[in-house]
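Complex record, two chains
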Amino acid sequence: MTDYFEVLERDGAARLAELRLTEPVTTPALVDDHVDDAGSLWRAERELPDGDESRLTVLPHRGLPAGTADEVADSFAVDYPTVDYPSAAVVSADTAADHGADAYVVSDASGSLGHGAGMRDLVLAVREAIPDDTGLYLSGVATPRNVATLAYAGVDLFDTSRAYVRGTEGRYLTTDDAYFLEDLDEFPCACPACAKPREEFGREDCAAHNVNALEAELRRVRRRIRDGRLRDYIEGQARQDQWLTALMRELDQQYGYLEERTPVYRGADLDAATEDTIRRAEIQRFAERVTTRYRSRFDDHPLVLVPCSAAKPYSESQSHRQYMDAIQFRGHIVSMTSPIGVVPQELETTYPAQHYDSVVTGRWNADEVEFVSEVLRRYLERSDYPRIVAHVPDDYRPIIERIEDDLDAPVEYTVADHPTTSESLGNLRDALAGESAYSKREREHNTVRALADVQLGDGAGDELFESFRTTSRYPKLQVRDDDGEQLATQVPSYGTLAFTLEGARRWDESDAPTKRVEIDGFVPHGSVLAPGVVDADEDIRVGDEVVVEGPAAYAIGRAQMHGAAMVESTRGEAASVRHVEEM
Amino acid sequence: MSKPSPEVYEQGKGMDAHNQVMRRIRAEKEETYDPHEPTRVWLDEDNTPGGVFQSLTIILNTGGCRWARAGGCTMCGYVAESVEGGSVSHEALMDQIEVCLDHEAENADEPSDLIKIYTSGSFLDEREVGAKTRRAIAETFADRERIVVESLPDFVDREKVGEFTRHGLDTDVAIGLETATDRVRHDCVNKYFDFADFEDACAEAVAADEAAGDDEGDAGVKAYLLMKPPFLSEPEALADMKSSVRRCSAVDGCHTVSMNPCNVQRYTMVDELFFQGGYRPPWLWSVADVLESTADCDAIVVSDPVGHGSDRGAHNCGECDDRVQTAIKDFDVRQDPSVFEQVSCDCELTWAAVIERETSYNMPLAR
């Protein structure tokens, strides 16, 4: 049971949480002033402390430093008692397990400082061994430069010890460097410690500055998590130290760990400004869903590949309006873009297709070319277009040419100089001459089915929506059954379907995989809290539609935790409920 | 969930684990040694209850420590310097003594008044050094003032000690107690005797002393302490040594305490921890702090930091190590705590922060 730690918001593996002491602490945070150490059992037998709700008590422990042999770790394992006050258990990467504590201190973390792969292994090993709603505490590790990336990896609690000690050694720490104090003529900081005249500024001041800089960075981290924008910061910040970039990239290699914790949509925009953006879980997941779940229902028409636009959704941009005007629904529009890959017209509102902003220079790097081209190749493998019209500028051509030999249809290029010149648009119009147009009904029906495919799974669009009708206007389509009963609504800001109870039942009864949360015998109103969850599907992600069912209620709502967290947690909102029916 | 239990600490289990690991680590060494050569021999100067003497220190190669063959102490790599196989013959051991005497003759102007014999085991254990050899060695050094022989407390008895005092040699039994805290000695050092055994050994030395005639030598015990075995943080190690020095000094018969910082020796558990970033040898400031704060003890308290100033030995910041080492050596001879007032460095601030902040779950906080 976790009584004193609650995750409030999630941003990938990072969490904004509350250490629920008498005076609560919002984490990621420095907890020096809130921790009592009951002491090491290596040195002496310890009394179990009385504890106190105002303090996080580190239970009597045997710290296993980096390099401790397995046999020693096993034979000196500590049995942690169950206590009724806020407590932390000391573990190592290899021995981490659920001890019923509110937080876990990792004793061998400092051995992984400076090693990207080592720190990744350590954080993942502990994070996966302890319940989701417990705090992960690395002591003596945080600096202003590394703390954001560590929080991004999933660490919740830190302390000032390393930053302070480095200051006493004459190292002036900032988010970008560890300067030698004596080399600095002026300080790149305006904290109170740095207000002192340079000639009076000593090592104790340096230590005080380091602590201030660390605290400020953690405030930024908390803000970024609230905004769902930590990754966008990390892609820049991790550049300040090679091992932090390595840690970020090593984590990207752990797609399962990050993807499980990454929401299916965010309110915030996504910056595509570095070559690492392509490896974000959101980007990889979208590409994976487009190439394994989405089914093109327009592939009896020519495919028209067009470049992306800065304005989103694409269909509202100047350029795309001109393309659409030329195409006149005679071709299926698929936008090519870095770093998203390809975006079929039905998915232009789906996160992150209308939420990213990339740096456009017309100069593509090899990774981008390879990625977009691979996604396009996989996309085309699942479809069967009679013709491929590429209405793209020159810088897009290498992407298509790279896979042209694998394609069944020849690629017809229609851009003369720039896609929006009248010559180019005329070429496009001419290329589609004689092709039949699809109807608005077909367009809207296929959009609903495509959203269902991507959101719910391969085949879901056909399983759920064989027969239905739509009302209202794109991009706020309402989905109704043949009797007019509403089943779902297109959420225009994220490109998802939000179900009604009737829609939930249809989903539940279909062969499409349903994401279900099983609850105790109560009727949830507003939200389902974690203690009420009996079981939940492992593939539930934050933001997913979920069917909530228990002996007393049947409901449809939206996941606020990933499935594993719903099962492990004893605190926090597991899902918000949109509609509920008492049973 | 389990209940709090006083049985968390299990002697047998921890010992098995330590021994298993140490056997594995030691198996990596491949060198063998000539049984006719001592492991090491050197000349130095030492403070004893009889005054400051030139000393000849001999590390006899006796076939190594039997405990180390089972696994042994977590910080000790000396066994790697021992002879392959088992015991060393009387003739070979006497050859080693001969080599040491030659070394002394070549390097010193006059014979050393103090002889110190260590074996990386127990000189008084007859399975290592037979009674015949022991008596012959006592005979060899009969003309000196004082002798130190190393032994585990088990093997200290008044008769064996009497074999040295009867030659008029003041005799000190050096006992590697490591710490007065049984729990630390067992769990961190992996050495299995208790402080009570040390007290018994001291009582044997006192008995030998009382049995000795006026024209014979005195007998006593020199306790060896180990500062900062693995798994202890700097402040824990410091506190452990302060209390250990006082407890040793209070034992009748223990007239000298040699408190030595742990260094990182090859083929040890400490070396593995060091390599992975989980161990830092103690600060020289910690050594100085113990000496300074226990200067009021009756016993002579000395320290000889091996490899001081290096990553693998006790060290401070790199700037002040030699100065602090000099003060420690000065204290060893003069026992005057004011020697430490003469040295200071910016890194004392770091050391103080480490003492305040380091725990067994965040160490080492500084390199």
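Note: The CA atoms of residues 41 and 103 of chain B lie 8 Å apart.
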